[in-house]
Write a structure and sequence with these properties.
26% of the residues lie in helices and 26% in strands. It is of the alpha+beta class. The chain has 6 domains: 69 residues, Phenylalanyl-tRNA Synthetase, Chain B, domain 1 (2-Layer Sandwich), CATH 3.30.56; 117 residues, Nucleic acid-binding proteins (OB fold (Dihydrolipoamide Acetyltransferase, E2P)), CATH 2.40.50; 197 residues, Phenylalanyl-trna Synthetase, Chain B, domain 3 (Phenylalanyl-tRNA Synthetase, Chain B, domain 3); 68 residues, 2-Layer Sandwich (Phenylalanyl-tRNA Synthetase, Chain B, domain 1); 218 residues, BirA Bifunctional Protein, domain 2, CATH 3.30.930.10; 87 residues, Alpha-Beta Plaits (2-Layer Sandwich), CATH 3.30.70.380. Strand 37 and strand 38 form a beta hairpin.
Length: 831
């Protein structure tokens, strides 16, 4: 809502000493969101004066245009000894003797347009005669320069700035949904007067009378319109135009002046907050009826769009059919035209929810709907209608019919009982009971005291005040929220990080430190993404959950694994020239339950029962957490330190092992030849010691690479974060330092090339027994000397006991491990 400060001063005695910025700061302290304070007209500088046209000569030009060479009297600004200044003007809507606005050399007009004496059309034009649009003012409809004959007592040479009201200060306020009354100058002036402690003059100056049906007939069906006021104005002059002051205020408030009738209804809406609508009386047939639309009914609105209606829409009709969408937009059939001489003014109160629903469904927001859906003061209808009618009589020469229609009554406001001490207890400051009553009176409430209990009835313009704590907030605004001392609550004793938090922090420290970059991707996929992964039909990644309102119909499902999102991140980076990538993400995936469960819809009037909460939980999809990585390009670029190292499946495997090592978990690695989307010969399966699956890592299948547009030899890994959290040791346990030295033994075993190294490692671990602290594969060797189909695996064993191990004890452990490998795999020690 844009509020000219000059207009606010009409209703609040703010005085000239309170500037716009100070006023904006006081409104901010009162809880309003003042976004900007704009100085309008400040870009017009220099001499701008009133001039009188003494004479002119029309001079046709070769280009077909006719200009006027004018002599204009500008009083004390005339050249010495001259009756006026010579000015070239291209407009032809003025006559000799007319008063006009003249920008003299040195003036600067909007758009940084500097005025200077310059030669044009064979003359030296010593200034410029101005039109309204050239000054940044509303178009006055004269199709030419401004004529000032009807503006007070003006003389040539007078300063035109105060006459034109060119300069003003405008507050731009973001009105929150609970403060619909601030969508009016009336509401903002009341807030300004309260904040500044000055008097307020309410433009809504007459109450709604008892029902009367002497004017244009009105029929209200249903409960969507509790009050409807209709006044009739006849004998309007169709050529009458809005005065400059009214058009200027409407323009500064953010609306475009159009015609007298439209400008007056907009002016009154901006002033009081009550939207009005004017019907051409000659185009109305029969009574005005407010009813619910029938499904499929159609209406052509003022924007010439045909709207198809539903049974939820509130409609204005007459005997000819629909003539307007109640509270949203009027219909074209009864639109005010250039020949309109009789109008019926509508000021009604409509149900806010119905108006909001229609506006959103049709995507048809209007100044009226914005106010109705936030709450309009029903008690302002009658006064607003008479204010508009009075302006049409005064400015348009019309006559207000004594016969009027008032159908319905102002809905009663609810009364809330509160403890007088509640505001002080909640705000944390001392507020006397009398002070609470006075502050609520200032807001407009009616308060009846019964001991310490207050019965508070909010004013009709505050439908948001329905709860005791709403009134506490109003008292807080009067006290000044910025004056309430902040008191931090005493935090309870902490229990430290949860195990899940410890796991996450350990991963966030280890993975970026190893060269991986964390990203966040949108959790949305398409069924084509899952198809491109090549997963079988019975795979859990096929259990998709479809969104009822997806951001994009191309990705309407929640992700069932992290890889499609990471593949998309790789594609976006590739398009921007980033080829060497090691992107990882941790987050939830969503998998539909095998059997669909319908969620209940609990009542909003009370807390859901435990059974309802349990049923809601049961209807949610499974939401396990995953950890995944995608690698492309070079792991290490070629440079002075040596040759480059391209990404390989070993880096995806390293990602898993780094994550596991950061959590203190030992994983078993087994070859997996059939798990999409990985290459069947370059995929590792990771398990815990008890065989629980943790995840997979390796090179992505070439078909999947092609489907997603990834670089060749892209590698990836994905792990079950839930399993890692469960397997991680408690973070509070601190391992004691070993006091005995480690014994190191290396073994090199020759085995069949088909036997995985991880299987041999596990066998050595089992054979070594409890003295084995760790085991690490450090070399894989093949040669003709080993024999065809053979390979050598070299392992480093670290042994430690409760005493210093002797060489014989270490050798015994080593031999036991080798014997176990020989028994199970035919392993032979390499000489």
């Amino acid at each position: 809502m844009k509020a000219p400060v000059s207009w606010l001063r009409e209703y609040a005695e703010l005085g000239d000493q309170l500037d716009a910025r100070a006023l904006g700061e006081s409104l901010i302290r009162a809880g309003l969101e003042v976004e900007t304070v704009d100085e309008v007209g400040g870009d017009v500088t220099g001499p701008l004066v009133i001039g009188r046209v003494l004479d002119f000569a029309d001079e046709p030009q070769k280009n077909g245009k006719t200009i006027r060479w004018c002599t204009v009297d500008v009083g004390g600004h005339n050249p010495d000894g001259e009756p006026g200044r010579g000015i070239v003007c291209g407009a032809g809507n003025f006559a000799v003797g007319d008063l006009v606005v003249v920008a003299l050399p040195g003036a600067v007009l909007p758009g940084d347009f500097a005025i200077a004496a310059r030669k044009t059309y064979g003359h030296v034009s010593d200034g410029m005669i101005c039109s309204a649009t050239e000054l940044g003012l509303p178009d006055d409809g004269l199709d030419g320069i401004m004529i000032m004959n009807d503006v007070g007592d003006l003389s040539p040479g007078d300063d035109a700035l105060p006459v034109l009201a060119l300069r003003d200060e405008v507050l731009d306020i973001a009105v929150t949904p609970d403060r619909g009354y601030c969508f009016s100058i009336r509401g903002l002036a009341r807030e300004a007067a309260t904040a500044a402690g000055v008097a307020f003059h309410d433009p809504v100056d007459r109450p709604v009378p008892a029902e009367v049906a002497d004017g244009h007939p009105v029929v209200r069906e249903g409960d969507g319109c509790p009050l409807f006021v209709a006044l009739t104005v006849t004998g309007l002059d169709p050529s009458a135009r809005s005065p400059r002051w009214l058009a200027r205020w409407v323009q500064l408030a953010g609306m475009r002046p159009i015609s007298l009738v439209v400008d007056v209804t907009n002016f009154v809406m901006l002033a009081t907050g009550q939207p009005l609508h004017a019907y051409d009386r000659a185009r109305l047939t029969g009574p005005i009826t407010v009813r619910t639309a029938r499904a499929g009914e159609r209406l052509t609105t003022l924007d010439d769009q045909v709207r198809t209606l539903t049974g939820d829409d509130l409609l204005i009709t007459d005997d000819s059919g629909p003539i307007g969408l109640a509270g949203v937009m009027g219909g074209a059939s009864t639109e005010i035209g250039a020949d309109t001489t009789e109008v019926v003014l509508e000021a009604a109160h409509f149900d806010a929810r119905r108006i909001a629903g229609t506006s959103r469904r049709l995507r048809l927001g209007s100044e009226a709907s914005r106010r109705f859906e936030r709450g309009v003061d029903p008690a302002a209808t009658y006064a607003a209608a008479h204010l508009a009618a009075g302006l049409l009589v005064e400015l348009g020469g019309g006559t207000l019919s004594a016969d009027e229609t008032v159908s319905g009554v102002v809905p009663a406001m609810p009364t809330t009982r509160i403890d007088a001490g509640l505001p002080g207890r909640i705000l944390g400051v001392e507020v006397a009971a009398d002070g609470v009553v006075d502050m609520l009176h200032d807001v407009g409430c009616r308060v009846e005291a019964d001991g310490d209990q207050l019965a508070v009835t909010p004013p009709t313009w505050r439908p948001d005040l329905t709860d005791p704590y709403d009134f506490v907030e109003e008292v807080g605004r009067q006290v000044g929220l910025d004056t309430i001392p902040p008191v931090l609550p005493t935090p309870p004793a902490g229990r430290g990080l949860t195990k899940r938090q410890q796991v996450r922090r350990a991963l966030q420290a280890a993975l970026p430190g190893a060269g991986f970059t964390e990203v966040l991707t949108f959790p949305f996929v398409s069924d084509a993404d899952i198809d491109h992964l090549g997963v079988p039909s019975d795979d859990g990644r096929r259990r998709l959950v479809r969104l009822a309102n997806p951001l994009a119909e191309t990705s309407p499902y929640l992700r069932t694994c992290l890889l499609p999102g990471l593949f998309g991140a790789v594609a976006r980076n590739l398009s921007r020239g980033n080829d060497d990538l090691a992107l990882y993400e941790s987050g939830s995936v969503f998998r539909a339950k095998p059997e669909a469960v319908t969620a209940p819809r609990p009542s909003v009037a009370q807390r859901p029962t435990d059974d309802e909460l349990a049923a809601l939980d049961a209807a949610l999809p499974e939401q396990p957490e995953r950890l995944a990585v995608v690698l492309t390009g070079m792991w290490r670029r070629e440079g002075w330190a040596g040759p480059g190292e391209p990404v390989a499946w070993t880096h995806a495997v390293a990602f898993v092992e780094i994550a596991a090592r950061a959590l203190g978990i030992e994983l078993r690695r087994v070859a997996d030849h059939d798990h999409a989307p990985w290459h069947p010969g370059r995929c590792a399966r990771f398990e815990l010691a008890d065989g629980t699956l943790v995840g997979h890592a390796g090179e992505v299948h070439p078909t999947v690479v092609k489907q997603f547009g990834l670089p060749a030899r892209t590698c990836a890994a994905e792990m079950d974060l839930e399993v890692l959290v469960a397997a991680a040791p408690d973070g509070g346990d601190v391992a004691s330092l070993d006091t005995f030295p480690v014994a190191k033994e290396d073994v090199a075993l020759v085995v069949d090339a088909a036997i995985p190294a991880a299987v041999v490692e596990q066998t050595l671990r089992e054979g070594a027994g409890p003295l084995l602290e760790s085991i690490r594969l450090f070399d894989v060797y093949t040669s003709e000397q080993l024999g065809e189909g053979k390979k050598s695996l070299a392992f480093a064993l670290r042994l430690r006991g409760d005493h210093t191990l002797t060489d014989a004890e270490a050798a015994q452990v080593r031999d036991a491990a080798v014997a176990r490998a020989a028994e199970h795999h035919g392993a032979v020690l390499r000489g």
